[in-house]
Amino acid sequence: MKNIVVIIALFFGFAATAQEQKNKNAKYSIEVNGNCDMCKKRIEKAAYSVDGVKSASWDVASHQLTLLLNETKSSLRDVETAIAKAGHDTPNRKATDEVYSSLHGCCQYQRD
Prior knowledge:
There is one protein chain. By secondary structure, this protein is of the alpha+beta class. 43% of the residues lie in helices and 18% in strands. It has a three-stranded antiparallel β-sheet, with helices on one face. A hairpin with a 5-residue loop joins strand 2 and strand 3. It is elongated. The chain starts with a helix and ends in an 11-residue tail after the last helix.
């Protein structure tokens, strides 16, 4: 009988741990400047280069990047930094002028 109680307690302990891990992923939507499908590929590639990014999808028309991010591995700030290093501005991070000017002509968007 004691063994059964121990087994049940362990089962619920593992179930609670599995549930806790599911809640570590957060969904974000941020604006990222860009113009075209080449920008889309570059922005998504930069986002995926950050450890913990589970999904990244940038919409050309709305300029919105939708992310699913494991916050135990990285932060939204890390993703924005990677995107800026690729040449695209976000509300909190700006690409350097040098990186921005190296983008293809059709990818150079109106900067603030």
